[in-house]
Amino acid sequence: MGKKLMETLSEHGRLGIAQQFDYSKFLLYSLITQSTAIEGSTVTEVENQLLFDEGIKPKKRSLSEVMMNLDLHNAFQLSIQFANQHTDYSLAMLRELSSAVLKNTGSRYNTALGTFDSSKGDFRKVNVSAGSSGRSYINYTKVEDRLKKWCSEVNEKRNELLKSRESYDKYLFTFESHLELLTIHPWVDGNGRTARLVMNQLQFELGLVPAKILKEDKAEYIDALIKAREGHDPKVFSFFVMASHIRNLQAETREFKKSQEVSDDEMFSLD
Fold this sequence. Notes:
Blueprint: H1 2-14, H2 23-38, H3 45-54, H4 63-84, H5 91-101, E1 108-111, E2 114-117, H6 143-161, H7 167-184, H8 191-205, H9 218-231, H10 234-270
Antiparallel strand pairs: 1-2
Helix pairs in contact: 1-10, 2-4, 4-5, 4-8, 5-8, 6-7, 7-8, 7-10, 9-10
């Protein structure tokens, strides 16, 4: 799969797809739309473009859907700033990112163990089920210690990879970081959006074309997460995301080539 990735990235780079004007903007809008779609949003990429660029709210979409997308857009602005500044990962950073993701859609929870607010990025103070099998995510009392360990390992590895030219290793690291953050499940809500955001933040920082999980692949994505977590085998998840990313890049390359052929035909017809 490493060879296929490098061939795909090479062609993508040779064609200069990522260097096109506004490519980064539309890629960002796609990342946001696909991530929120996995969580149930029906807002389209075109609707988000109008929402983000012109402030035009999509008709026939709920307020919660609109706010979910606006929140993630703002969270990405913060995330990209962290990536550009090579900011070290910390519990404070994770709280800030999660708070941005859930700024307008988060909730306040009152439990026997205390009050916490997901819109402020507070870590959970309750245990959370991991499905109908009876499994649960780690005990809430262990969340902060696991996150400190995660931050330390991520900081060490990303500083090492910033000096490397091996894209395959970089991608694997970002996918495994995504998986581990979801496995810790630090928050009551927004774990998926925040984990995908962090994955993309690492990819931006490492100079990679960011990977996105398409809403059409939601079932496979969740299945890969479960198998990797329960089987203690991160490769199951990493290989799924890698294969998905390769397919997405190849599709993007095909569309780019097709558009160039159309442009050439139009030019000849004008002659």
